[in-house]
Amino acid sequence: MSMKEFAYHPEKAAQALADTAHDFGYDCIIIDFDTCTLAEAMGATITFPGDEPARVVKSPLQSIQEAVHLKIPDPQRDGRLPLWLETTSILRRIVGDDFAIMGRADQGPFGLLGLLRDPQMLMMDLIEQPEEDIFAGLDICRTAGVAFAKAQLAAGADITSIGDGLSGESLISPAMYRRFSQPFERRYKEQLGGGLLSLHICGRSNHIIEDMVSTGSEVLELDHHNDMDRSFGIIAGRCCVFGNIDPSSVLYSGTPSFVREKCREVIESAKLRHARFVLCPGCLVMSTTPPENVQAMTDAAREFGSWEECA
Q: What's the angle, vertex CA 190, arms to CA 130 and CA 76, rounded to 5?
């Protein structure tokens, strides 16, 4: 089915997710349609280019000062948010307790504000505009995200998660992350309460790992640019790590044997550090990824992913 059909038909989406989990032997199913569903529900204009996930084509904020007028969407009624929740509920009925379900809550506060303002314009705002105007927008985006996250957990997800890709070292400095992003991720987790939260930041994150741990998130999803051995040492078992197989040069372009070796390497690093670790791609896997490479990854998890300390 097309990405647009997948995004608008919860029964089809849930069945596709369940079938894929059975076919490849996943342990956890991640519900994630695109990166702009919350932004759309808050006024952004989206499109589905070809057979790709939706993307924003028009951001609603002409200035960062307008962010205070953003409407916090109702996850049960606004935009495509109810479709995500319905997919979660249907999937839970289909798979029962055989699989864990991670119901993503779309973007984190900084990433969401970037989509609503336009990423390039937000980067300029960080330099040119009053901090209090940026903070006001981030706080609204945090509140909107938490409402959706709570709804995902209520719909049957075992854990929820956010992606805050604009927060990574590939785009802003660690100092800016600590000023504009991390405090709102931390408050997000605090407001979520006892619900389990996973935090994903795309790209480089080697110099903000301690700050990510300090958000209180139970899981950190680390991209392939991350030095996992170093990160395992910093994290020291304080939270679980998901990662970090390269979805491009390894899963898409590699051979099954190459995938197997890369998976073995990161698992061995996790063993050495006695890490709490889940093997998975570091970021989005392309739809044209060879199925045999995906299978090689899940096979490697079973081949190398058990050791006596975890018994």
A: 90
